[in-house]
Amino acid sequence: MPATTLDFTGRKALVTGGSRGIGRAITIRLAEAGCDVAINYLRNREPAAETAAAVEALGRRALLFKGNVAKVDNHGALFEQLAGESGRLDILISNAASGVIRPAMDLTHRHWTWTMDINAGALLSLAQHAVGLMGEAGGSIVAVSSIGAVRAIPNYAAVGASKAALESLVRHLAVELAPRGVRVNALSAGVVDTEALKHFPNREQLLEESARRTPAGRLTEPKDVADAVLFLTSPLASMMVGQTLTVDGGYSITA
Ligand SMILES: NC(=O)c1ccc[n+]([C@@H]2O[C@H](COP(=O)([O-])OP(=O)(O)OC[C@H]3O[C@@H](n4cnc5c(N)ncnc54)[C@H](OP(=O)(O)O)[C@@H]3O)[C@@H](O)[C@H]2O)c1
């Protein structure tokens, strides 16, 4: 029997928005598998420090990077620092997201570009920098998307469109980078009860309906997403290139 234990010992990962919610679960899962993890966050130092401490308690190295992923002009400095601290990068998880939650008729052009820059634009620049640090050994990039990329959800026009752009960018990057040994995929999650949902005016209804309509009988949890990220970044997924893997307990395939 071939070994199926995933051993990522010595690998270096960067998780954007890796301090809280789904990003935190991904950070911890990668550290459990053996990765040193660079954790990017935007504002909240406390959860970032707490997640870094959890990585270190697992015997791995944690680095903290505060900064807005939408400001691509800062990516050069971020990756220079990463190169100085870690020397290389094996795994990039583009997870940080934000966006304006409003009906399409209430969105301004500024809301639109702001949402696009954080959720889709950041990946292009992050991938361009990451590939340089991955070098000849190659690596793996995973972008976290959502069902709003392919389904219409109330108040989700800007974020949904930005996630659709993200998934398309993943396919284009995947084709360009596969010959260089870098696999790029997306992971689309069902509704997960994180702080992000507090921005939805219909949060309670969203949670209740998702739990009720999910064939697997419960909401998707951060650890479900993290497990699938581990798979996508592992050699078990070596022929998965440019795909969007859905992790939602079957929610999105129901009528
Ligand atoms: N929750 C869901 O139901 C759901 C469903 C499908 C997909 N997703 C996707 O899963 C990913 C994570 O969502 P979540 O629910 O875990 O969110 P969350 O709990 O709100 O956490 C967001 C994380 O991203 C960081 N962040 C936010 N804006 C940033 C920026 N501009 N630059 C750098 N870091 C930034 C935050 O740092 P600070 O704490 O410092 O602000 C935090 O670490 C997103 O891509 C989201 O679209 C979520």
Structural description of this entry:
The chain is built from 7 helices and 7 strands. By secondary structure, the protein is of the alpha/beta class. The chain starts with 11 loop residues before the first strand and ends in an 8-residue tail after the last strand. The mean pLDDT is 96. Bound molecules: NADP nicotinamide-adenine-dinucleotide phosphate (NAP). NADP nicotinamide-adenine-dinucleotide phosphate is lined by residues 16-17, 19-23, 40-44, 47, 68-70, 95-98, 118, 144, 146, 189, 191-192, 194-197.
Bound molecules: NADP nicotinamide-adenine-dinucleotide phosphate
List the strand order in the largest sheet.
3-2-1-4-5-6-7
Note the beta-strand portion.
15-25%
The top-level CATH class is: Alpha Beta
Apparent shape: globular
CATH superfamily: NAD(P)-binding Rossmann-like Domain
The CATH architecture category equals: 3-Layer(aba) Sandwich
Low-confidence spans? none
How many separate helices?
A: 7
Largest sheet: 7 strands, parallel
Structural class: alpha/beta
> Would you count the extended β strands for me?
7
Mean pLDDT: 96
| Fraction in helix | 40-55%
